[in-house]
Amino acid sequence: MTQQPILVTGATGKSGRRVVSQLRAKGLPVRAASRDGEHHFDWNDTGTWDPALAGTQAVYIVQLDGTRLVRGFVERAVGHGVRRIVLASGRGIDNPDYATDSGGVLDGLLDSEAAVRESGVNWTISRPGWFAQNFSEGFFAEAVRAGELRLPGGDGAASFIDAEDIAAVVTAALTDDRHAGQVYELSGPHAVTLAEAVATIAGVTGRDIRYVPLSVADYVDELVGQGLSSVDAKAFADVIEPLREGVDEYLSDGVQRALGRPPRTFTQFVEATAAAAGGWHTAATRP
């Protein structure tokens, strides 16, 4: 079984590329699939699905937000003989009041989870919360590098999860049947406010970085002034709502259950990122 490749979709993303790296570190064959990566795969081009799935034993599914494409993909995966599926889902999916869902993301996640549960093969669901890497290679990275993070986040906190821990859980689930039928909700070991997060980055890097809390209206106005449509600007503000309301403060035990160890702290994430080549001193990478 280990001679058959493991398919990783979203292989250039924050969790996907780390899953690829960790699987290869174990000496396992990997098919790293994405629109612009080693193996071409595009969720919106079903003609790329079968070549990606052919001959694979397991698959990590990183879905396209706001779509319902996973169900059809899972059916094809089962048809190709895939025996293990790990789905990237989202924390808060069980809470209808988690956030305003103007993009239809929640419905897509719920349908995807139902699809893998009904697939008839071994499945595991990963439900990570806010990625710590949003500060270094995602949503907040450019502003952090510029020295000022302006968001409508108030003084709410989130239990940011290191993407290395997410990848470790996914890698374990892709390679060990003991994780079959498990839903792992993933968080860091403690909640951190945006102000605390930025202060930690500033302290470790020695850079002058600050967090500026904005009202939702002011944030939307700023984004519109930068050229975004009012609809897109409001959608970005909706993304920040869970942070502002503190609904992602709570801690989850998924890392401990899956790996038998606690998750990395936000400070450990910052120290590791600052020590890595580039750190916060280069342009943000692809989310």
Automatic annotation (TrEMBL):
TM annotation in the entry: none
Pfam family membership, one: NAD_binding_10
SUPFAM superfamilies xref list: NAD(P)-binding Rossmann-fold domains
Domain NAD(P)-binding: 10-176
Domain of life: Bacteria
PANTHER family to which the protein is assigned, alphabetical: PRESTALK A DIFFERENTIATION PROTEIN A, PTHR43162
Protein name: NmrA family protein
